[in-house]
Design goal:
With 252 residues, the chain is of the alpha+beta class. It has one domain: NADH Oxidase. Strands 1-6-5-4-7-9-8 form a seven-stranded antiparallel β-sheet, sandwiched between helices. A two-stranded antiparallel sheet has the order 2-3. Helix 4 runs antiparallel to helix 7. The chain is globular, with a radius of gyration of 19 Å. The chain binds flavin mononucleotide.
């Protein structure tokens, strides 16, 4: 019995599901409108414009070779703030826009199956210069962040929601990635979920590498209480839910 269950989970990693799908019947092929590439926000919310690339004065010209060599998971952070240009650089590295094509396609700094990009980035801000503590969300199309919640007691909430992993609350900012699966399902139906899991690894890997250019460190965190994390960032847990997170803080 146990073996059967294990095989079901193993099958999730295989690409057999592709043969079960009638791709002529996906929502995309049936002409259903494409879902938005970025979640909406209200103009009544506080929006903070991020520094543009030319203003990223704190970001060092680290070589890709040294970044790959030095990358490691960091769980101890200095009690120092991250600067806003450093945060802008990390957000661009993980979900930012690298190009808009003439045909209107938006290409990002990370790869994604079919360029579907099914993630949103929430930020639990503890110590970033010029920003009040709270929960924010990245708006890649506007190079801005939007304040979602002032969130009282954020430290305790994230420690409890991450099953007691107390190093998260000692970081400057926790990146929390949610997934909106329909963005991928619209094209790939039930073949969407395997590639979503692959996509999010690319995002976090770029965060590890980008941290090397700003004397900072991170640690991918996949162990958390699902309902509690979904509640913390106010998502419904079905059409959008937390998939992965990573605290960032200064390490030198
Ligand atoms: C998918 C994934 C999930 C992880 N989840 C956690 C976690 O919940 N808590 C934690 O402390 N580290 C977590 N880690 C970090 C790993 O423990 C770490 O990458 C591993 O020990 C290797 O160390 P290195 O990254 O320094 O090479 C995770 C890493 C990955 C890639």
């Amino acid at each position: 019995m146990k073996k059967n269950i294990v095989n079901v989970y193993r099958d999730f990693l295989k690409d057999r599901v592709r043969k079960e799908i009638d791709f002529s019947q996906t929502d995309q092929c049936r002409g259903i409108k494409e879902p938005p590439i970025q979640k909406e926000y209200s103009f009544e919310q506080k929006i903070i414009k991020l520094p543009e690339k030319e203003e990223w004065n704190s970001v060092k010209d680290t070589s890709i070779r040294s970044a790959i060599q030095s990358r490691q998971s960091h769980r101890n952070y200095k009690d120092k703030p991250l600067k806003l240009d450093e945060l802008a650089f990390l957000l661009w590295s993980t979900q930012g826009i690298r190009k808009k094509t003439d045909s209107g396609r938006v290409l990002r700094t990370v790869p994604s199956a079919g360029n579907r990009h099914s993630f949103e980035t929430y930020l639990l801000i503890f110590n970033v210069s010029g920003l009040e503590q709270g929960i924010y969300r990245y708006l890649p199309l506007e190079n801005s962040i939007v304040l979602e919640d002032n969130a009282e007691n954020l430290s305790n909430c994230i420690t409890n929601s991450s099953l007691g992993q107390s190093f998260l609350a000692k970081s400057a900012v926790v990146f929390v990635w949610t997934v909106i699966p329909y963005r991928m399902e619209w094209r790939y139906d039930i073949a969407a979920h395997r590639v979503i899991a692959m996509d999010v690894g690319h995002v976090c890997q770029n965060l590890y590498l980008a941290c090397e250019a700003i004397d900072s460190g991170t640690c991918g965190v996949a162990a958390f209480d699902q309902d509690s994390m979904d509640n913390l960032v106010s998502v419904d847990g079905s059409d959008e839910f937390v998939i992965y997170m990573a605290p960032v803080g200064k390490v030198t």
